[in-house]
Amino acid sequence: MAVYVHDSLFMTRRGVVLMVIIGLHVFIAWAIATGLAHRAIEAIAPPIQTDIVEEVKTEKEPPPPPPPEFQKPPVEVPPPDVTIDLPVEAPQTTAITAVAATPHPPAPPVHVGSHKAPTTAKNFPNSEDYYPAASKRLNEEGAPTVHVCVAASGKLSAAPTIAQTSGSARLDEGALNLAKAGRYVAGSDDGKPIDGCFDFRIKFQMTK
To answer: How many helices (H) and strands (E) does the chain have?
Structure first.
């Protein structure tokens, strides 16, 4: 008897829970159908509203204009009073004016002196006496030029030299020997003996 009562109570509780679940489903279906659930959601979480905010671009202000340049007015300087003294032309006359000539001192007299170059003296040796024997055998001929310096005493101041060769060393040597053996007259300036030099030719020629 006790077990039966327990089972009936259990069945009664299950029926109540089942009725509650069925009623809850019915209520949810009715709320969806009537839009009650949508209004409840809006009341709990209001819709998100988005506002588009345009960014305001700040334009840079242009730099201030440069200060105006003040031009200084030109200073007018009055021209100076210049007086030009023009020369007064003398009246033209036909009179002849005498101009005194400035006397010039006379030019110094030109000294004209007698100058003589040294020369060979009389009885100067003959070239035949100094003709080299070998040159005679070979029929060598020539005329070398000898350079001689004579002191104021009339003697040679230096050994003679060949100024222009004859082309033969033997003939040139014979000419130097002849110049050394000769005598000379010193040069003079206004009759006063002086040192001097001169050239002369010595001719070597075969005689028939």
So the answer is: 4, 8
Buried b (16+ CB within 10 A) or exposed e, 86-116: eeeeeeeeeeeeeeeeeeeeeeeeeeeeeee
d(C-alpha 17, C-alpha 30), whole Å: 20
**How high is the mean pLDDT in each 10-residue block of the chain (208 residues)?**
52 80 85 67 59 62 70 62 55 48 63 82 92 93 96 94 95 96 93 94 89
Give the domain extent around 36. Answer: 2-43
Distance CA 163, CA 177 (A): 15
The C-alpha atoms of residue 118 and residue 151 are separated, in whole angstroms, by 9
Q: How many domains does the chain divide into?
A: 2
Residue 82 within a domain: no
Closest CA relative to residue 147, chosen from 139, 156, 155, 138: 156
- Structural element, H or E, at residue 38: helix 36-44
CA atoms of 197 and 185, how far apart (whole Å):
11
pLDDT tens digits along 82-121: 555 555 555 554 444 444 555 667 766 655 568 899 999 9
